[in-house]
Amino acid sequence: MDLPRRRRPAPETGDDLPWAKVVVTPDANADGAVDWQDGAVAFRTIGVKAPGSEQTPNRVVAHIPFNFASQATHPFLRTLDDVKRISLATDGLGQFALLKGYASEGHDSAHPDYGGNYNKRAGGLADLNTLLREGKKWGAGFGVHVNATESYPEAHNFSETLVDKTKPGWNWLGQSYYIDQRRDINSGDLARRFQQLRDETDPNLSMLYIDVYYTHGWIADKTMQAVRAQGWNVATEWADKFERASLWSHWANDLDYGGATNKGLNSKIIRFIRNSEKDVWNNDPVLGQTALVDFEGWTGETDWNAFSANIWQRDLPAKYLQQQRITRWNGDDITFTGGLRGTVENGRRTFYDNGRKVLDGDSYLLPWDGGKKLYHYSRTGGKSSWAVSGATRAYTVYKLTDNGRVKTATVRPSGGRITLDAAAGQPYVLYPDSAPRSPPRSGARAPGEGPRLQRRQARRLDQGRHRRP
Q: Beta 348-353 vs 340-345: how paired, if at all?
């Protein structure tokens, strides 16, 4: 007799049963040949995409506010000030803020208390939620550093059922013990702890940075099923962990941290497919890479100028290419969707947007937000000429400062080109006069509001409404 056919759930549900799909493709990138690159283009139509990957191209600025050993040097409301400062200094570029030390007494304390044990010295749950809620208005999304591998005895959830007391782990501020991960996931305890964090915090806390995770296979897959069912996105310490879910890897981005031989993924095939979906890569002469240079205390880094320079020299060019998908990769010449091309000319990294050169070595004029504005930067400064599109009568040039945009010039195209005169290392943003110039995002100030904003901030500080270390 005929047995009823069992319907297999879609792969994205994380079904326990093995599955496979095959896609057959002709010349998908119109280069006159059928090879692995056509297969890579076609793979995107059937591959599993990491949840939240659509946000990756616009998540330009990553930073780590750091609290450690009960010091609370970066309480939550100070971090909100930092988020505002970054937004004003970048004209509203998207941010990913990874909070290390949001719980208990700070970084690497009381794991795995994901919820219910917030860093009171940093402002507690109330100030954390203020940071999350208000930070969204300034273009920031947030993640927290969590540990599903080790537990510390001071944790509310610590028990001899949770851990294997014969297996000590990291011993920094105190001795940790390895969690019985199979029991933790099968019992529902892991999901319960993450759900508590989800229930108690604002939805703008959307990323779990899962630290020191060594496990592959069934336990890792079941862990991802649990956190994805709750709507979490995922980042990892190492680029090869949670490959189907991870959006960001710490060691791949933090170039001076961790092992020199354990950084980003080296696979050209994976990067061809997923360059725009993740930040887990090593440097490439054309694609570049995002990098982490901090000013909020992580690894002792407090230099705002170095933090800012990294945004303009590394992050923004890499994110500009992530706005489109790779279709052809021929050595140091890469073609993308949307008329974008990156190459190396005379030893210089070069980008073209529909035939117009928009990046030339260390200088660029990059269209952003669909051409609603353009970012200009030159590491060495001086005059440069750039082709522009459309019939715009003029562009207003603003230099970017910690207090936002400051108008510096108006330039008019001549023969379809504009000439800009930049100070070395100074970022600028240009708005075409045919487009309205509004503040970067809801709640931000327009140029010229700096003194009033500073007076209001000073009054709030006097009234004790902001905590400082």
A: antiparallel
